[in-house]
Design goal:
The structure is a single chain. This protein has 362 residues and is of the alpha+beta class. The chain folds into two domains: 88 residues; 238 residues, BirA Bifunctional Protein, domain 2, CATH 3.30.930.10. It has twelve helices and twelve strands. It binds phenylalanine. Phenylalanine binds next to strand 11 and strand 12.
Length: 362
């Protein structure tokens, strides 16, 4: 056997024996690299006679091509094997049931707001919003609170420090005590007919089992040419039935006073207590759930509307209170305690979107 044949046999055996890409690369460098055996052999051609060089050169070139081809083939095989191995470990059984994924819960206040919005949207109401930090004009004056009227104090208002109003006077901002200032903002910027609800945060300096310094209200406002108390009553009764998910609700309107409505009324709903449970809609007991009335002509005038042309009604209710009633939550302060266990118990599935077609809550 010539030594070229010998070299070929040894090199090809090395290629065959390589079990990894790295081992194969070593074989390649050992044979065809700059200092590889075959490359070194090529360098000896220069010292040969032309005759010798012709045959030896041809044989070496054949050898070089054979070895290179063998390495390419082996490399492809090794790469395929590596890919197969990876695919085997990355295999996914799509028929397996999904693992339980941790997910958050919707807070009862958010849930209740979404339910209220769903009900009033179906009746053709828009949702409007306004700032939490208000001025005296929108929170009181435009709503027909007389200057220095005790009603301003009645609201236990959180006031900010006084500052210059930019017109030589003083001004103190406040945290809105109700959502009613957004009535003003809406009537001043939109032309009737107006049909809106205004959910949002409100603030009063008060704290016990049924009062927190921050709470939530939803305001309703309807302004049109021929709106009357019957519309107010019908709207609120329809709302109560839908919200409490019952076929009928006993309601009662009691005369009341608000500076911004005339006449004004508070609405009570009938309920009874059966054991630990509160049943809404029936029974001999009454519970106050909202304030309401016909928008006062002065308020319409303050917003540039002519009371001889337009009338309307407004109402305001406490969202937290409605949530407590509907979902049997005893203490309001827990709503804002950020206790994950409480939320796990009273919260709602984020995938259940309240809507009238499939039910508001489950
Ligand atoms: N703003 C009143 C309150 O907070 C509620 C209300 C709104 C009453 C609209 C009448 C009309 O007590």
């Amino acid at each position: 056997m010539s030594d070229i044949e010998q070299l070929e046999r040894e090199t090809l055996a090395g290629v065959a024996a390589a079990e990894t890409i790295a081992a194969l690369e070593e074989v390649r460098v050992g044979a065809l690299g700059k200092k590889g055996v075959i490359s070194e052999r090529m360098k000896t051609l220069g010292k040969m006679s032309p005759e010798e060089r012709k045959t030896a050169g041809a044989a070496l070139n054949v050898l070089k091509d054979k070895v290179a081809a063998a390495i390419e083939t082996k490399k492809a095989a090794l790469e395929n094997a590596a890919l197969d191995a990876r695919l085997a470990t990355e295999k996914l059984d799509v028929t397996l049931p999904i693992a339980p994924t941790p997910k958050g819960r919707i807070h009862p206040v958010t849930q209740t707001m979404e339910e209220i919005v769903a009900i009033f949207s179906a009746m053709g109401f828009d949702v409007a919003e306004g700032p939490d930090i208000e001025d005296d004009f929108h929170n009181f004056t435009a709503l027909n609170f007389p200057p220095d009227h005790p009603a301003r104090e009645m609201h236990d208002t959180f006031f900010f420090n006084e500052k210059d109003d930019g017109e030589g006077g003083k001004k103190r901002m406040l945290l809105r005590t109700h959502t009613s200032p957004v009535q003003i903002r809406t009537m001043m910027t939109r032309k009737p007919p107006i049909r809106i609800i205004i959910p949002g945060r409100t603030f009063r300096c008060d704290s016990d089992q049924t009062h927190t310094p921050m709470f939530h209200q939803v305001e309703g406002l309807v302004i049109d040419r021929e709106t009357h108390m019957g519309h107010l009553k019908g709207t609120l009764e329809a709302f109560c039935k839908a919200f409490f998910e019952v076929d009928s609700v006993k309601t009662r309107f009691r005369p009341h006073f608000f500076p911004f409505t005339e006449p004004s009324a508070e609405m009570d709903i009938g309920y009874e207590r059966v054991g630990n449970e509160i049943r809404i809609g029936e029974g001999a007991k009454w519970m106050e759930i909202l304030g309401s009335g016909m928008v006062h002509p002065n308020v319409l005038r303050n917003c540039g509307l002519d009371p001889d042309e337009y009338q309307g009604f407004a109402f305001g209710m406490g969202i937290d209170r409605l949530a407590m009633l509907k979902y049997g939550i005893p203490d309001l302060r827990d709503f804002f305690a950020a206790d994950a266990r409480w939320l796990e118990h009273y919260g709602f599935d984020p995938l259940d979107q309240p809507n009238l077609a499939t039910g508001l809550s489950r």
